[in-house]
Amino acid sequence: MSPQRRYSAGQMTAPNRATFLYTPRPQEVPTLASDGLRSAFMIDNVFSESAASFTFTDLDRLALCGVQPGGSVSLDNDRETGTEFFLQRRELGIINTGGAGTVKVDGKAFNLGNLDCLYVSMGSRSVTFESTDRNKPAKFFLMSAPAHREYPTAMVRYTETKGIALGTQATANQRKIYQYIHANGIKSCQLVMGFTELAEGSVWNTMPPHTHSRRTEIYFYFDLGQSMVCHFLGQPQSTRHIFVHNDQAVLSPSWSIHAGCGTSAYKFIWAMGGENQTFDDMDKIDPLQLR
Hints:
The protein has one helix spanning 34-41; strands at residues 6-7, 11-13, 19-21, 42-43, 47-48, 55-57, 63-67, 73-74, 90-96, 101-105, 108-112, 117-120, 127-131, 140-146, 154-156, 164-166, 175-181, 192-198, 204-205, 210-211, 215-222, 229-235, 238-244, 248-252, 259-262, 267-274, 283-284. By secondary structure, it is an all-beta fold. The chain folds into two domains: 6-33 and 40-156, Jelly Rolls (Sandwich); 159-289, Jelly Rolls (Sandwich), CATH 2.60.120. Strands 1, 2, 3, 5, 6, 7, 9, 12, 14 and 15 form a ten-stranded mixed β-sheet that branches. A seven-stranded antiparallel β-sheet has the order 4-24-21-26-18-17-16. A four-stranded antiparallel β-sheet has the order 8-13-10-11, with no helix packed on it. It is globular and about 55 Å long. The protein starts with 5 loop residues before the first strand and ends in a 7-residue tail after the last strand.
C-alpha cells in the first residue's frame, strides 16, 4: 500500500516531489484568513535550480513549474500524471523570464532568449533545460495542461511579436498584451499562454476585471524587483486580496476575478486552460459593482 497523502485546506504533498493544490469553494473564501488564502491560491516558491518540480492543481488539471537551471535539468515524469512519461497525455508551454537558455525536445535544441516562448507537443518524451551562462541563468516558467492530440512543437520569439495596446495613462493601466499560444498563434489543444507588460507609470492590470466560467487562469508575476503587487481575487461581490512579490504565482478559478495593482510597473505571464480558447470569452464586471 502506498503511503497516505496528507493534505490541508490548501496543499497536498504526494510521496514524490510534486505538490497538489486544492482550491476551496467560492463560499469558503470569505472565511479564510491571509495564511489560508495564500495556502489555497498562491505558489510562492516557483523556481528550482535542480529539478522541474510541478505544482498540480484541481483547476482544469493545470500544472505549473519554474526551472532556473544551474546545470542540465530534465523534465521527469511524476506519478501524479498516471502515465508512462510526463507529456504522454499533456502539452507544455514555456516562457523564459531570465537569461538565455536552451530547451532540448527529443534531441532538438531550441535557444530561448528573454521572453521567448516554446510550445512542446504532447507525446514528447525527452525535455531538458540548460542556461547559456550560469552567471545569468535562464528562468523557464512552465505551464502544462491535459491534451488529447498532438500539435507541433513550435517556438516564437519576443522580437517577432507585436503587443496589443490596452488601457490609458490616465487610468494607470496602459499595457501591452503579448499572445503566444492561442487560436491564431501557436496551436495547442487547450493551453493559452502569453504575458502582459505594463508601461512605466501604470500599475493596474486587468481593470476593469472579469471572470470566465469556461477557463481557469494562472498569473505569474515577474520583473517586480523590490516592488509588490496587491492581487485581487474572489467573487465580484466578495473580493479578497493577496500581496504578491517577484516570481510568485496566483491561481484564478473560473468564478474568480483576477486583477492587481502594483507599486511600480511589472510584467506577468497569464496561462489559461479549459473548455475553449476564445481569448475574449469573458464576463466583464462593472468596477462599481465590486465589493
